Structure formats: structure tokens, C-alpha cells
Amino acid sequence: MTQLALWLATVLGIGRIPFAPGTFGSIPGVLLALWLHHLGLPWLEAGLIIVIFAVGIWAAGETERYFQLTDPGPVVIDEVLGMLVTLAFLPVNATGAIVGFVAFRVFDIVKPFPARNLERLPGGLGIMADDFAAGVWGQIVMRLLVWMLPTWLT
After folding, report:
1. Is residue 18 part of a domain?
2. Which end of the chain is less enclosed by CB atoms within 10 A, N or C?
3. Residue 13 domain-assigned?
């Protein structure tokens, strides 16, 4: 089970990239979001967010115990979740996806309220919850930008 947790938490090993693992870990989230938008199934999008959050809590917690570190760098399933939340239910084009990527990365690094507080939750829950919150901030910004610049981002 530990190997499965490591595989999931590192998103097939992407989190083991030695520099900027969070940035690289966000890329699969962007690609997954674009694919989900292409399918046009919002229930699947919502369902995957819930499943990735739940599985991520377990996998990130197991990986944290394996590395004996709090929020180890190779755990990037939280970045996938944050990107999905940032782009959820928005019909963005490639430019919109890039803007969403940048917005999420900024919020993930800055950790505006309540992300910093959620990060302090124990185990995998804290790892996943702060990126969920950063994704909510990203979603708010993206909704405003899509409203203001629809021809640019959709």
C-alpha cells in the first residue's frame, strides 16, 4: 500500500523532479482540467475533485509518514487538486489555462487566508486542504477574469 500511496501522491513520480516539484505537479492538473472541459461533463469534474481530495488525504498522509517529513516536496497530488478547483466549470482556452496555472501557483505560494491555517491541519488533510483553498482563490480570480476578458480566456 505504501508504494501505491507514493505513486499517487507523487503523481506517477512527477513530484520527484528535483526542482520546482509543485510547479511540475500542477501541469497534470491543467491537462486533466482541459480534458474534463472537452468532455463537457461537469458531474465528472465535480466527482474527480472529490475523489482526488479524498484519495489525496490518504496518499499524502502515507507519503508523509514514509518520508518522516511534514508536507514533503514530492507530494504533488495537492497541486493537481488545486488546479482542478482553479479551472473547475470554466470554459477556458489555452491562454485561460495558463493564466489559471499562474494564478494557482501564486496563491499556493502566498497562501492567503485560510490556506495558511488549513496547512496546519494534521497529515494528508493539511497537505490537501491548503491547496484546495488556494484553488478556491484561483477560481475566484479566474471567474472575474473570464467575465472581464471573455474573448481572451475562453
Report:
1. no
2. N
3. no
pLDDT at 126 over 80: yes
From 26, 48, 50, 27, select the one nearest 37 (Cα to Cα): 48
Q: State the total domains in the chain.
A: 1
| For residue 106, pLDDT beyond 90 | yes
Q: Which grid cell is 89?
A: 466549470
| DSSP structure string for the chain | -HHHHHHHHTTTTGGG-SS-HHHHHHHHHHHHHHHHHHHT-HHHHHHHHHHHHHHHHHHHHHHHHHHTSSS-TT--HHHHHHHHHHHTT----HHHHHHHHHHHHHHHHH-TTTHHHHHTSSHHHHHHHHHHHHHHHHHHHHHHHHHH-HHHH-
Q: Does a structural domain hold residue 5? A: no
pTM as predicted: 0.93
In a domain, 7, yes or no: no
